[in-house]
């Protein structure tokens, strides 16, 4: 997943797109799609009263201003001037390849999961993912009510949407947070939350393998271990 995220970011940088923009809108897909100008796509179906739009920067800015004037919440969101999940980035991915289906798809409606494009990973699946709206509202209904969801991304962008859209007993854990003072600490805290939820992450994968016997110059740790005498009886 991390390599896929890197590849997606790399191709986004290397491909020439129009100057795009995205915006969060306080309307569900059905209502927003009726109001959108033809140049703008509804990129993400976030919930009954929330979606994200994507398109040319000037058109998105104009539409956001109109919605705001009409009393509808609308705010542009950072997207590096790339209109993700829209027709405007079709040039990003070429030479599609097949994949196995091992997750719930949010880029293909459930009734089309048996079609070839829903059974693709790698380039073809990600091409469809980049160009299609995100059917998060529809797919989130299939998530068990006691699920633990781990968001793997450069930033926990979906955390607010997950809290609003999923059952209250679901646990949402982000591995990174933009602007945090120390993301290494944030990651370790997230791993700790997984332990609390009953999982056993293999944290040894985060560190170099220790070869035994260790060299004679390896510092001792014993002097760092002390009894805690904070309570007396």
Automatic annotation (TrEMBL):
Protein name: Malonyl-CoA:ACP transacylase (MAT) domain-containing protein
PANTHER family assigned to the protein according to its UniProt record, in alphabetical order: FATTY ACID SYNTHASE (PTHR43775), FATTY ACID SYNTHASE 3 (PTHR43775:SF23)
Domain spans labelled Malonyl-CoA:ACP transacylase (MAT): 1-180
GO molecular function term, any single one: fatty acid synthase activity
Cited InterPro entries: Ac_transferase_dom_sf, Acyl_transferase_dom, Acyl_Trfase/lysoPLipase, Malonyl_transacylase_ACP-bd, PKS_NRPS_Biosynth_Enz
One Pfam entry name: Acyl_transf_1
GO biological process: fatty acid biosynthetic process
């Amino acid at each position: 997943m991390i390599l896929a995220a890197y590849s997606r970011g790399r191709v986004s940088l290397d491909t020439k797109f129009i100057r795009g923009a995205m915006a969060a809108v306080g309307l569900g897909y059905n209502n927003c799609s009726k109001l959108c100008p033809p140049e703008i796509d509804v990129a993400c179906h976030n919930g009954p009263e929330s979606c994200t739009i994507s398109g040319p920067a000037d058109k998105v800015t104009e539409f956001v201003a109109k919605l705001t004037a009409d009393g509808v919440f609308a705010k542009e969101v950072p997207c590096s001037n790339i209109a993700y999940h829209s027709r405007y980035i079709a040039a990003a991915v070429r030479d599609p390849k097949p994949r196995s289906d091992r997750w719930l798809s949010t880029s293909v409606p459930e009734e089309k999961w048996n079609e070839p494009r829903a059974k693709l990973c790698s380039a073809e699946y990600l091409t469809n993912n980049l160009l299609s709206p995100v059917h998060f509202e529809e797919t989130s209904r299939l998530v068990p009510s006691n699920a633990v969801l781990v968001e793997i991304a450069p930033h926990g962008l979906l955390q607010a949407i997950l809290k609003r859209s999923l059952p209250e007993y679901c646990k949402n854990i982000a591995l990174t947070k933009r602007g945090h003072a120390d993301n290494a600490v944030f990651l370790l805290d997230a791993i700790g939350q997984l332990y609390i939820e009953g999982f056993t992450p293999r944290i040894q994968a985060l560190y170099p393998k220790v070869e035994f016997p260790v060299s004679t110059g390896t510092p001792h740790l014993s002097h760092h271990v002390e009894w805690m005498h904070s309570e007396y009886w």
